[in-house]
Amino acid sequence: MDERERLLELLRTRALRRGKITLSSGRVSDYYVDAREVVLHPEGAYLTGRLILDMIDPEAAAVAGMTLGADPIVAAVSVVGHLGGRDLPALIIRKEAKGHGTGKFVEGPTLPQGSKVAVVDDVVTTGSSLIKSIERLKGEGYEPIQAIAILDREEGGSERLADVGYRLESIFTRSELLEETAV
Question: Which of this chain's residues are annotated to bind orotate (predicted)?
Fold first, then answer.
């Protein structure tokens, strides 16, 4: 079993939940994927880090994502990258500006203005989190160059990202995740 197949197996066995659930987008779905069940597990973190690292543009100087869903992803990519000889600092994007100190939206090592950044998320439904992350990074003077997710639910997120000039890249799609399971 290769790394991608193993990560898919982990998503299906650890993260996929069936039943009616309201998503962060407000939509009601008959399934839910709690990717934290996988990316906070050592094997899942490693596999996620490896697979996303392979997708990141060579020009990217950092990897970033919105807290909380992307926190373990950016950390995994950063650590796996370092172990493989590619240093990509991890940037965490706050949902709300810090109420004290510098009031920053983006936490992590300060990079030169204009640094190119890969933006990641766990599961994409409408793309709102990735779009907000892109906007926050631009506001801090960075240049987001790509949007990557573990799972594209194929519910409009890819199209919304395309509308703002980004192509969504994902390790898996809803179709692949649910291919061998009945939802």
Answer: 125, 153
